[in-house]
Design goal:
heterodimer; A: 106 residues; alpha+beta; five-stranded mixed beta sheet; B: 126 residues; mainly alpha; 5 helices; two-component regulatory system (chain B); HPT_dom_sf (chain B)
Chain lengths: 106, 126
C-alpha cells in the first residue's frame, strides 16, 4: 500500500492507502473525493479528473505524455504541475504523494 | 509515465450535462466506442472529417444534389456517422435538415456545425 493525500478544493485532506498499480483517479473516486468527476472512467478522453501535483512531487511524478497534454487543453486553470489523475499510476516511489483538486473541472 | 488506458468504471453522468457532450466531438462517447484506443479514435475522426466535408458539398455545395430523395440519403448518412463518432451537433443539424431539406437556414446550420467539428478534429490531430 502507498500513502496518497488528495486535498479537496475546500482544504479537506483525504489520506488514502492506495494499491500499487491503481491510479490516483480511481482512489479519488473510491473515496468520494469531491471535485474529481472522471467522466470517461480513465480513458484520457475528458480532462475531468484534473489535479495539481504538489510542487514537492512534480518531478517524481513527471510530465504528462502528448495524449494527456492534449486533454489538459480542455481543463480549467491549467498550471505547470497539472496532471490528469487517471494517468498517474500509484507505485512505491510515489509513497506520500500529495495532489490538489482544482476549483472546478473542465 | 506510460499513459494508462485501462477504463475504470465511470461514474454516472446525466446525459447531455457533461463537459464532453458540449464539445463539437464528445470524446468520452468516442472513447467508449473505441474502448479507449487513441489510434483508432484519430483514424475514425479523420475519416469522419473527410466524409462530413463530402456530404456537406453534396448537400449545400455549388454542385449540390437537386433530388430531395438523394439529398435526404446523404443527410441520413451524415447523421448516422455523426452519431457514431459523437459529433452530436452535426447529428442534430442533420436531423433538423431532414424535416425540411430545402431550408437554406438549416443548410447553413449544418455547414457551421461541420466546420466546428472539422476545426476541433484538426486541432486534435495537429
Amino acid at each position: 500500500m502507498t500513502k496518497l493525500t488528495i486535498v479537496a478544493n475546500d482544504g479537506t485532506k483525504f489520506e488514502i492507502d492506495a494499491e500499487n498499480g491503481s491510479t490516483v483517479m480511481e482512489n479519488a473516486i473510491r473515496n468520494a473525493v469531491p471535485g474529481i468527476e472522471a467522466e470517461c472512467g480513465g480513458a484520457c478522453a475528458c480532462a475531468t479528473c484534473h489535479v495539481y501535483v504538489d510542487n514537492e512531487w512534480s518531478e517524481t511524478v513527471g510530465a504528462p505524455e502528448v495524449m494527456e497534454e492534449d486533454m489538459l487543453d480542455f481543463a480549467f486553470d491549467v498550471r505547470p504541475t497539472s496532471r490528469l489523475s487517471c494517468q498517474i499510476k500509484v507505485s512505491d516511489e510515489l509513497d506520500g504523494l500529495v495532489v490538489h483538486v482544482p476549483e472546478r473541472q473542465a | 509515465m506510460v499513459a494508462h488506458l485501462e477504463i475504470f468504471e465511470p461514474p454516472q453522468c446525466e446525459q447531455g450535462k457533461s463537459p464532453s457532450s458540449e464539445r463539437p466531438i464528445d470524446l468520452v462517447h468516442l472513447a467508449r466506442q473505441t474502448s479507449g484506443d487513441k489510434e483508432t479514435e484519430t483514424e475514425v475522426l479523420c475519416l469522419f472529417a473527410r466524409q462530413a466535408r463530402q456530404c456537406v458539398n453534396q448537400i449545400c455545395g455549388t454542385n449540390h444534389l437537386t433530388e430531395t430523395k438523394d439529398l435526404l440519403a446523404v443527410v441520413r448518412t451524415l447523421r448516422g456517422s455523426a452519431n457514431s463518432v459523437g459529433a452530436f451537433s452535426v447529428s442534430r443539424a442533420a436531423q433538423y435538415l431532414e424535416t425540411d431539406p430545402m431550408d437554406g437556414q438549416l443548410h447553413d446550420a449544418l455547414t457551421d456545425a461541420v466546420v466546428d467539428v472539422e476545426n476541433f478534429i484538426f486541432g486534435l490531430a495537429r
